[in-house]
Prior knowledge:
By secondary structure, the chain is mainly beta. Helices cover 3% and strands 29% of the residues. This is Pva1-17i20_05.
Amino acid sequence: MASLELEACQSCQRLPPLGLFPFLKVLKIIGLNGILSIDGDFHGSNSSSFKSLETLYFSDMSQWEKWECQTVTGVFPRLGRLSLRKCPKLKGVLLEQVVPLETLYISNCQQLEALAPKSVDLELCVCGKLQLEWATMKRLKVAETSLLQIVRSDTLEDLHIDSSLESINDDCVSLLTFQLDFFPTLRTLHLSGFGNLEMISQSLIHHHLEKLTLKNCSKLESFPGSMHMLLPSL
C-alpha cells in the first residue's frame, strides 16, 4: 500500500501503527476529532518507521493537542512534504528532521509553540510562536501571524509577508526599518500591511534582488539612496 487517507472517522480515538507499512508514500489524516494525542504507537515504535513516506498531511483535527514524536529515532527518513491545517489545539514538539523538508505548510494552528522542522519552502498562516530554522530556507511566506522573529539568512531567496498586525518586531528587522543587508541572496521581497514601516535600508551592493513589492505601508518615507547602483538587478 502506497497511499492511505483516513477522513471523518469521528469515533477513532487512537491511530494504528501506520509507521510499520514499509511502502506507504502518502498519508492523509483529516477530521479525526476523537484524536487527542499521537504517540509512539503511531510510528510503530520502530527505528525504521515510515521509511518510504514522502507526504504527511493533517487537517481539521479539532481536538488534537500533542504529537509525541521526540522519543522516536530514525523516523520519516524520506519525508519531503508536511502539512498541518486547522489543528487549533496542537502545541509542543514537532518533528526534528536531520534532512530539511522540501515543503512545510502550517495554517490555523493558533496554539502551536515549537521549533519548526528544517525546510526549504515554508508557508505559515495564523499560527503560534514558531521558532524558524533560517539556515536552510529558500522561500518563506507568512500571513496573519501573531509573532515572527526574523534573523539574518544567507540562503533565503523569496520572502513574502502579509500582515495587518504590529507585532512583527525583533532586534534585526523592525517595523520602522527593513534592512536588506540581512538577506544577501534575496531575489523577491513582498511586504504588506507594515503600518509603521518608514524605511528600506541597504548599505552594500545587492546583486540578487529582482522584485520588490510594498503594499499598505502608509508611513514609508524613503528607499536606499542610489538605488540603481545598490540594487542593480531590481
